[in-house]
Design a protein that fits this description.
Blueprint: H1 2-8, E1 13-14, E2 29-30, E3 33-34, E4 48-49, H2 52-60, E5 63-68, E6 72-77, E7 90-95, E8 99-104, E9 117-121, E10 125-129, E11 139-144, E12 147-152, E13 158-160, E14 164-166, E15 181-184, H3 202-205, E16 210-211, E17 215-218, E18 221-224, H4 229-236, E19 244-248, H5 251-256, E20 263-267, E21 269-270, E22 294-296, H6 301-416, H7 421-597
Parallel strand pairs: 4-21, 5-22, 19-20
Antiparallel strand pairs: 1-20, 2-3, 5-6, 7-8, 9-10, 11-12, 11-16, 12-15, 13-14, 17-18
Helix pairs in contact: 6-7
Length: about 600
């Protein structure tokens, strides 16, 4: 019993909070209990000594102890789902004392999730190997590509109060791919079981993440700083509440302690066994009480090796099937994306055509309004011109009538008063001149009045047209405002729907992104291979082309040489012919000279 004590009991164990645990700024009611005032740190309680039978009996009520051929006595939980993995039912809490602490929803989670190690055993599933050192959560961490993940540390990874972690360079890489629990990082601090990626996707997600495990030794206690508080607040988009740790003295006490929004209880027993070995995980199986509760594992190492080989083959098949499923999902997502893009383009084209049609309608209406205004203005001018011509005709008729009356009166006066004819003619001439000046002035006055009337009519027509345009512009602006409002509402609705679709597709996109990257890398390598083959082919073609060009140059050089020799030979022949012709011309001249000198 004491041997199991120094394998199980360590520094402490953390009380479990429910997945729907307290959040900052809220008051939760648990039965008749209402959350108390904010936590005030108290002095540390004195160490507590607890018998090992308390821990053993507590866990035996929730599972089975098994005598394992490799790890001695291990514990298997009862009532967990077939696809259950450790550290998946609960949530993370960022504490001041220990950093990130796992708060389990299982009633037994205060022990196995905070000391010891979890391992996968084919026939039994996940079993817990007891340990002595308490920690906020003995898990490895990975982060990248928008994901955060954790997985149980293997038993060969040890912790010492004075040293910290002790493990080899390949220990963390040896963690089974299916053991990792990945979630989109924006859901961190929330219960992962509602957001966790399927284990079959781990083989893809693990390629875009890197190890960020950082559990440090601060004053002899492990502190989980794998994800700093500032990063947690940034990725979750809200301040992280400050949470403290306080101690309880029995398992029953921490199960009955009400949950607080600013503090979590911790059960911190201590063993006084001098043989206690800190950090020890595996060792000789202790003599446990109540043997009927212990199942014996009598498998041989060869059977274990065969089972491990079968498990690796099965995982390989699962990874292959998952890769195929992800490729199909990627193709479907690409098809949906293209369809959505086509729909967006069609919608944009329809909106553009609608805008052009409205603009054309408004332009035509504006042209019609302008034409109507010009027609009305021309009609008013035509009416004014007709009125002016009518007045001019009346004035001319009046002038003619008056002239005729005057001529008749003049004739009568000439007949009656012949002596005064000259005087009358002079007066009549003067009157005619005055009348002409009066009529001219009257005509100018009427023309000015008519011009002013036309100007007033033109101004009134211009103001009426401006008023009509202002009204039309107001109606157009109102219609445009309504259209923009409707367009804004429609865009907001489209954006909401698009955001919803993007949120739904984001996880699948990120999940497919790694596959696309791998596919892109493969295609890039394939392209490089094709480019290399094409380059070699082009190099061969270039060499053949160079040889052909060299051959052509040699033939051309040969032809040039032959042509040069032919031309040289031709020049020689021409020179010889010229020389012979010159000799022939000199021969008759010499004959004439000889005859001239003859006696």
């Amino acid at each position: 019993m004491k041997r199991l004590a120094h394998r199980i009991l360590g520094s402490a164990a953390v009380l479990t909070l429910a997945a729907a645990g307290c959040r900052p700024g809220s008051t939760r009611v648990y039965g008749n209990y209402r959350s108390p005032p904010p936590y005030v740190a108290a002095a540390p309680a004195p160490p507590l000594d607890v018998s090992i039978e308390v821990i053993y009996t507590d866990l035996a009520a929730y599972g089975t102890w098994i005598e394992h051929s490799s790890y001695g006595h291990v514990w298997r939980p009862r009532g967990v789902p077939a696809d259950w993995r450790p550290y998946t039912l609960g949530h993370w809490v960022d504490t001041d004392e220990y950093g990130l602490v796992w708060v389990s929803d299982w009633p037994w989670g205060f022990i196995p999730f905070h000391y010891g190690r979890w391992v996968w055993d084919g026939p039994y599933g996940w079993v817990w190997v007891p340990g002595t050192e308490w920690g906020p959560a003995w898990v490895a961490w990975r982060r990248g590509g928008g994901y955060i993940g954790w997985a149980p540390l293997p038993p060969r990874v040890h912790w010492s109060d004075g040293v910290g972690f002790r493990f080899g360079p390949d220990d963390l890489d040896a963690i089974e791919v299916a053991a990792w629990c990945f979630i989109p990082e924006r859901y961190f601090l929330e219960p992962p079981h509602g957001h966790a990626m399927a284990p079959s996707t781990n083989v893809t997600v693990i390629r875009v993440t890197k190890n960020v495990t950082n559990i440090v030794n601060v004053g002899g206690r492990p502190v989980n700083r794998s994800i700093p508080r500032a990063d947690v607040e940034r990725i979750v988009g809200r301040p992280v509440p400050r949470t403290h740790v306080y101690e309880v003295r029995t398992p029953q006490e921490f199960r009955q302690t009400p949950r607080r929004p600013d503090a979590i209880p911790v059960f911190r027993p201590r063993t006084n066994d001098p043989r206690r070995a800190p950090g020890r995980v595996a060792g000789p199986a202790p003599q446990l009480p109540n043997p009927p509760y212990v199942e014996v594992d009598q498998r041989r190492p060869e059977q274990q090796r065969l089972q491990a080989e079968d498990q690796r083959q099965q995982q390989k098949s699962q990874r292959k099937a998952e890769d195929q499923r992800q490729a199909e999902t990627q193709r479907r997502a690409e098809t949906e994306r293209r369809q959505a893009e086509d729909q967006r383009q069609a919608e944009a084209q329809r909106q553009q055509q609608e805008s052009q049609r409205k603009a054309e309608t408004e332009r035509q209406a504006e042209t019609q309004r302008r034409a109507e205004g010009e027609r009305r203005q021309a009609e008013a001018q035509r009416q004014a011109e007709a009125q002016r011509q009518q007045q001019e005709s009346q004035r001319k008729a009046e002038d003619q009538r008056q002239a005729e009356t005057q001529r008749q009166a003049e004739t009568q006066r000439q007949q009656q008063e012949s002596p005064r004819k000259a005087e009358d003619q002079r007066k009549a001439e003067t009157q005619r001149k005055a009348e002409g000046e009066r009529r001219q002035a009257e005509a100018q006055r009427q023309a000015e009045a008519q011009r002013q009337q036309q100007e007033s009519q033109r101004k009134a027509e211009t103001e009426r047209q401006a008023e009509t345009q202002r009204r039309a512009e107001g109606e157009r602006r109102q219609a445009e405002a309504q259209r923009q409002q409707q367009e804004s509402q429609r865009k907001a609705e489209d954006q909401r729907r698009q955001a919803e679709t993007q949120r739904r597709a984001e996880d699948e996109r990120r999940q497919a992104e790694t596959q696309r990257q791998a596919e892109a890398q493969r295609q890039q390598q394939e392209s490089q291979r094709k480019a290399e083959a094409q380059r070699q082919q082009q190099e061969s073609q270039r060499k053949a082309e160079d040889q052909r060009q060299a051959e052509t140059q040699r033939q051309a050089e040969t032809q040039r040489r032959a042509e040069g020799e032919r031309r040289q030979e031709e020049g020689k022949r021409q020179a010889e012919a010229q020389r012979q012709q010159a000799d022939q011309e000199k021969t008759p001249e010499n004959g004439k000279q000889n005859r001239a000198h003859a006696p």
